[in-house]
Amino acid sequence: MIFIDTSAWFALLCERAAQRPEATSTFAEIEKGRYGAPVTTDYVLDETFTLLRQRLGLRPVARLSGLLRESPSIRRVRISEAIFDESLRLMLSHTDKKWSFTDCTSFVTMRETHIMRAFTWDHNFAEAGFDVLPGCRP
Fold first, then answer.
1. In the chain, where does DSSP find H-type helix?
2. How far is Cα 112 from Cα 52, in angstroms, rounded to an integer?
3. Helix (H) or strand (E) holding 118
């Protein structure tokens, strides 16, 4: 399985993003099953929909919504109370990091589902010990 983060969704949907060509080719490989089933969370999607709406308008929000609805393989995990609580503990215990709460929910979700690879441009995933595509490093 591979985790899809906000930065990857944004790069995929923002036509002027510098990372868009790489995001498109990486996502095509994910759709072919190269990295296993794609997984994201409701918190990542909340963050992504908000970012798209604020920066690009509603059209990319509708495109992502359609992609999620049409894709039989993208798994959406809902953040439970237990994941929420563990994510808050993770955030509070890493005073040297500036991880967002959404990132912490992603890290906890990834660990609980044994996902070690993320599709992201966010260096925090590598910082947290995950392998990242397309190769972002801290």
1. 6-13, 20-31, 42-56, 58-70, 81-93, 101-112, 123-127
2. 28
3. strand 117-119
Tokens for 36?
A: 């296993």
State how far the Cα of 107 lies from the Cα of 132, in Å rounded to an integer.
12
The per-residue pLDDT for range 8-46, each reduced to its tens digit, is 999 999 989 999 999 999 999 998 989 999 999 999 999
Cis peptide before 134 (omega within 30 of 0): yes
CA distance linking residue 52 with residue 78, whole number of Å:
20
| Cα→Cα distances 102→16, 24, 28, Å | 25, 24, 25
| Contact yes or no for 124/9 (Cβ under 8 A) | no
What CATH code would you report for 2-79+116-133?
Answer: 3.40.50.1010
DSSP conformation class of 42: H
pTM for this predicted structure = 0.92
